[in-house]
Amino acid sequence: MNRDVFEKLPVPKAVMSLAVPSVLSMLVSIIYNMADTFFVGQTNDPNQVAAVSLTMPLFFIFLAVGNIFGIGGGTFISRSLGAKQYDKIKSISSSCLYMSIAAAAVLTAVFLIFMTPILHLMGTSEATEGFTRSYLFFLSLGIVFSVESIMLSNIIRAEGAAKTAMFGMILGSVVNIILDPIMILAMGLGVSGAAIATVIGNMCAVTVYLLYFRRKDTVLSIAPRYFTLKGIWGPIFIIGLPASVNNILMGISNLVLNNVLSSYGDYPVAAMGVALRANMLVVMLQMGFSIGIQPLIGYSYGAKNYTRMKKAIGFTMICTTVIGVALTIAYYFHTEFIITAFIKDETVIMHGVKMLRALMVAGPLLGILFTFTFSFQAMGRAIPSLLLSVARQGLFFLPILFIANRTWGLDGVIYTQPVTDLFTMAVAAVMFFVIMHRVNKQAQSETEAAAHR
How far apart, in whole angstroms, are the C-alpha atoms of residue 45 and residue 191? Predict the structure, then answer.
């Protein structure tokens, strides 16, 4: 366990030591997600690109299951570290592993048994259904590795081992990137090759994470004897479920978005898939920074060091805003080049340029929204975290999508996400100030109580 980063390092150095590995992990993850679309795009078949786009909601489901135990367990571990409850930490980490494996097995069975209705729900057409089925089949076989790579990286990062979490993700991503051109193009497997490469990459990441538990300096454990539900599952699910609801709603909203776009043809579906993949760089880098500081926020909150916690949150907001502004400017002036890098089809490029520029409207402020959300989770504030998740991907997104589609057609659909993000940002800011006011009152009460002892 890296205790210095939680207690001794100056806040900027502590934030950077945790956030930079997380950001680098996200960067490599983005590259490999883009690689799937890029190499499938080299087939110059819009239907295969659309198939990859249509399956994007499923990745949110994998992420949701992984985050129930990864974020739920990880934030619980960080708070327990701050409170010096080391025996409890072993039970948390062990229980997270076995519960997540069971959940992944159920998810695999559901996808394989109900694949046909799932494909229809995803909005596949006659031209894309065969490709989407092949992609989904191989992804389903590797769900357990997808879930475990997400879960294990989070609980390892929770005790300050950000570099190990980064290494596992980077290794898995590099393996995926290497295998993509071999399987998609050289072996002629197309979208099936992309899915197989993804599964193998996740297997490599999980191997790295499992080896970490053999270290003598870790307080984590995956030994079955520590598995228990008593006093463990409640705190995990209180934070894990809101985090997973966000991912599930992202999947549902993406599913609905694809269905609405499909009414305008397969080209807009493919274009939005490319635009969303390209926009992942902006979203995931800022999200990675916010996720990276969760252990520091959780530890400081558990140790009742509220001053250090607030400094970490403030510094993170500054960093994510700088990242957002810089990337928004770069994307705006190079939009066509970015879209063309994925596919050469002129119709897809035309739609993609407009879609990517629309998505970038909220780019400069997204990092602040993510900082609020992940800080709430780290503090164990389940209700604010849940409300933000529901607001961004359900309460705001879906009504805005239907109203915009009916009123402005395709252009309205394109601007739904950035408008939703701006509304959610306003709600998050209000929540943050209310919670900080309560934290300040709590700190004052504890100081007064200590003075009267």
Answer: 11
The 3-state DSSP class for residue 9 equals coil
The residue with tokens 């209000």 is 430
DSSP state string for 40-98? HHTTT-HHHHHHHHHTHHHHHHHHHHHHHHHHHHHHHHHHHHHTT-HHHHHHHHHHHHH
Phi, psi of 305 (to 5 degrees): -100, 75
Q: Determine whether 113 is exposed, middle or buried from the number of CB atoms within 10 Å of its CB (0-12, 13-18, 19+).
A: exposed
Reading phi first (left if > 0) and then psi (alpha if -120 to 50, else beta), residue 265 is in left
CB-based contact 158:74 (threshold 8 Å): yes
Closest to 54 (Cα-Cα) out of 103, 122, 7, 109: 122
CB 413 within 8 A of CB 272: no
In tens, the pLDDT along 111-143 reads 999 998 988 877 777 788 888 888 889 989 999
CA distance 17 to 195: 33
Both tokens assigned to 193? 């090759």
Query: Are the C-beta atoms of 289 and 373 separated by less than 8 Å?
Result: no
User: What's the CA gap between 438 and 374, in Å, rounded?
Assistant: 18
Q: With contact defined as beta carbons under 8 Å apart, do 273 and 49 qualify?
A: yes
pTM of the model: 0.71
Report the C-alpha gap between 442 and 305 in whole angstroms. Answer: 11
Residue 450 confidence (pLDDT) above 70: no
**220 φ/ψ angles, rounded to the nearest 5 degrees:** -85, 160
Please, which residues have CB within 8 angstroms of residue 285's CB and are 6 or more apart in sequence? 23, 26, 27, 30, 323, 327
Strands (E), 350-441: none
Query: What tokens were used for 432?
Result: 């943050």
C-alpha span between 295 and 9 (Å, rounded): 14
Listed by start position, the domains of the chain span 3-447
What does the DSSP 8-state code read for residue 186? I
Whether the pLDDT of residue 99 is over 90: the answer is yes
* Residue 153 confidence (pLDDT) above 60: yes
